[in-house]
Amino acid sequence: MLKRILQGMVVGIANIIPGVSGGTMLVSMGLYDQLIESITHLFRDWKKSLRFLLPIFIGAGLALVLFAKLFEYLLAAWPIPTNLCFCGLIIGSLPFIAAKVKHNGFDASMAVCFVLFFGIVVGMALLEGKTGSAQASTTPGLVNALLFFAVGVIAAATMVIPGVSGSMMLMLLGYYEPTLHLISSFISSLLHLDWTGLMAACADLVPMGIGIGVGIFGIARLIEWVMAKWPTQTYWAIIGLIVASPVAILMGTDWSGFSLWILIAGIVTFAAGWFVASRLGGE
After folding, report:
1. Crossing angle for the helix pair 79-91 and 2-16, to the nearest 10 degrees
2. Which of 114, 193, 226, 239 has minimal Cβ neighbours within 10 Å of its Cβ?
């Protein structure tokens, strides 16, 4: 139970950081297949599914509450060591996913899947760098609630796909900073028992939460079908997404503070990320 909550916290932290994929972390810890199965069979075998899903969701929720501001600070103050830590976490996942295709050979279809999905992640990183600074409104209202619902669907769908960052998608849509602002407002209002502020934050967070649920269930069923029909090609696509993720992260890193000491710190944090991925991998 405790290990599952810690694994959920890793996924939650990944979903906070633009460029880092919660789906990749699920793959790295050997939980991805079971997550998809638990989601798609939730109503058929709800006891088994909830035993698996609840600790993961509790951990992800705790990470969101406890670490959102911390990682916002770390990325602003120490972007290179922080991002290299994320790269270590992601690259440390490769042995787990490579084992899925180890004895299945390699052909043109697998190569196409790898290259195509590698390109998707790098392309998203390039697109992020070219997007404007337009931000969504957080003023409560029906239209805004519907927009947050739609954004929740899109972001959740990408969160479930390994290698694709849900928070990066929020950035591309202009909803990353507004969402962080809403979460911060919700937590602050809750701590100060500010019911007016709490209701204002919930006016957008609740529709977004519903959208996240819809998006996760929808994409999980699609992924289950694809994996059943083309399992090896799907895993090579996931490997392409995973290999591209560190590239996308490093492309978006602020290198202006680079120095020898920062490089040494980055090597240490990279190794720490790799170690965590290896320890949390599998059951």
Report:
1. 130
2. 193
pLDDT of res. 264: 95
Q: Extract the residue ranges of the chain whose pLDDT is less than 70.
A: 17-21, 28, 127-141, 158-159, 162-165, 168-169, 171-174, 177, 280-283
Q: Which pLDDT score is estimated for 280?
A: 62
Q: In the chain, what are the domain boundaries?
A: 2-280
As a whole number of angstroms, the distance between CA 114 and CA 127 comes to: 20
The 10 Å Cβ neighbour count of residue 267 is 13
By the 8 A CB rule, do 253 and 79 touch? yes
8 A C-beta contact, residue 1 and residue 65: no
Between CA 91 and CA 8 the distance in angstroms is: 19
**What does the pLDDT read at residue 186?**
83
> CB-hemisphere CA count at 13 Å for 141?
7
CA dist 84 and 274 (Å) reads: 10
Angstrom distance (rounded) from CA 144 to CA 267: 43
- Name the 3-class secondary structure at 176: helix
Q: Please state the pTM of the whole predicted model.
A: 0.65
- pLDDT at residue number 281: 57
How much of the chain is helix, strand and coil, in % rounded to 5?
Answer: 80, 0, 20
Q: In angstroms, what CA-CA distances link 270 with 73, 118, 204, 208, 264?
A: 18, 21, 37, 33, 10
Query: In the structure encoding, which two tokens stand for residue 107, read together?
Result: 């052909």
**Per-position b or e across 22-37, b if 16+ CB within 10 A of its CB:** bbbbbbbbbbbebbbb
149, 208 Cβ separation under 8 angstroms: yes
The pLDDT score that the predictor gives to residue 80 is 93
